[in-house]
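Practice record 12: protein with AFP.
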Amino acid sequence: MQKIFDCFLSLGPKIQDLIICGETNYTSHVNSSGDTQLALDVQSDLMIERELSNLACVYALFSEEQEKVRIIHKEGEYSVAYDPIDGSSLLDSNLSVGTIFGIYAKDFEGKNLVASGYILYGPRLEIVIAQKDEVGVRHLRFDPKKQEWREQERLFLAQKGKINASGGTQKYWSNQHQKMILSLFQNGYRLRYSGGMVPDLHQILVKGGGLFSYPATQDAPQGKLRKLFEVFPFALIFECAGGEAIDGKSRLLDLGIQTSHESCPCFFGSKEEIGLVREMDGGK
Ligand code: AFP
C-alpha cells in the first residue's frame, strides 16, 4: 500500500503544476456525475491513471471522470477510487481544490476501505493520509525549495468544534435540517463554506472540530457527494481523527453500494456535533 501512497506523494507537485499552468476551459464532455469536464479534470485523471496502472498491487481503478471500473492487474490486491480534481468549478475563482483517493481491499465497498487521503492544492501543497485502525491522520506539507514532503503533527478532532460547513441548496433543505443548522449558529458556530469538499473538511480537521453536512434535499434526495471517491474516503479520515461520519443515522462506512457513481447524504464532524445530528435524525 505504501507504493500507492508514494504514487500520490509524487503526483501532488505534478498536478499542482498542471493547475497553476493549465487552462481553466471546459471541454464539451459531461462526466458520469453530470458535471461538464474541464480540460484539467481530463489531464489529471490520465496522469493518475498512468501512474497507478504501473503498480502491480493495483487490481482496479475508478475515477469520477470515468464511467466504469477498470480492471488493471488481475493479481492486484487493492482497488483505488479517486476524484482527480474535486471542486474544479472553483478553479476559475482561484480557490483551493483537492484530489481525493480511497484504497479498497479488492472490491469497492465501504467495509473494504483500508486507507484514504487527499491532496490539497492551496497556497501550500499538503497531503493527508488515514489508515484503517490507526489513531490520528498523517499530515504532510511540501517544501518547494527542497522538493520534499515534510511530516507535520498528526491531526485529531476535539470533542466539539466551532465551525459549521453546510452544503446543499438551502431552499430545498427540510425544515428539520434548517432547524438543526440554526441551532448550531445559535450556539455560536461560525459559517465556513467554500464549496470545495477538500478545503472545507480540511479546515474542520486542522481547527480541531466542527460539522460538515451535505443532506438529502428536495432537489437531491440522495445528496450530491459520491460514496466511492468522496464520502467513504473522508469517513475513514474523520473516524481515524477521532470524529464520526454518518448519513444522518448510520455509519457511512457500513453503507452498501449499488452503483459505482452512487451518492448519499453525509455528515462529518467531531463527536458532539454528530451527536446533535443523530438526535435530530439528520435533520430529515
Ligand atoms: P465541483 O467539483 O463541481 O466543483 O463540486 C464540488 C463538490 O463535489 C464538493 O467538493 C463540494 O463539497 C460540493 O460539491 C459543493 O456542492 P454545492 O455547491 O452544492 O454546495
